[in-house]
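Now read these lines:
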Amino acid sequence: MFNPMGTNQKLKAYFSLIVSALFFGSTFLVVKNLLINVSPVLIVFARFFIASILFLIIGGFPKKQAFYPGVLMGFFLWLGYITQTQGLITTSTVNSGVVTGFYIVLTPYISKILNKQNIPKRNYIFSIVGFFGIVLISINNLSQISGNLFTLLCALSYAIHIVLVERYVNNFKISQLMFVQSLAGSILCLPFLNFKNFIFSNELLLPILFLGLVVNVAAFYLQLYGQKVITASTSALILSLEAIFALLIGILIANEILDILNWFGVLLVLLSIFYVIKE
């Protein structure tokens, strides 16, 4: 039976994940530019710390039951941030987006193992097709391989994080779960912080606030909102749009140029998402 309420809820969830992917895709260029003057750990710490304050204000102090899942999510998100940011020191923004996008292949398998989730066969097929599309997007940057091992670990961490969100998001208030996640990420950064060579300037304030507020708060809130309805494997495929958004931002701001293979890769990603989410 057709359920307009359920359909409307799904559309909102899909839209939330797409906007979240847009925000995530915007981070590669911002982080790459920040790394000229700021260490990877300090960038990650600032993102988590800003988000933790805002989520505490929004949702209040969480129940103790939210701490275990929040810390678990925070650890894998922190690991993903650290390895991706470290990798961006020696690889391009587009190449980083591609290797990060490998999580769309990993997520269905991890979801099946950890959450015992029944994954439709088409999700397995189109996750691989989508990743192949992401590889084609970066075909002109394959020579930049340094840093890819860090970014591959990032992809694994992101996949586990998405699966953990699937497991816990419906049991807790989003803002409280996000506060614990952000607090855990901040604390994990503390042993590695080094302010010795850091010189603050007003030029650093806007990109750091953007990463903390727009990405760590808005993007992750939208991701968790979307994953209340959408499975981890489908969410991962939609979130892979971040590679396309990163590329488009690169074209508009960093004057990157696409060839026909790159555009074919964009088409493959979009078709993969369409065939997975269509009823």
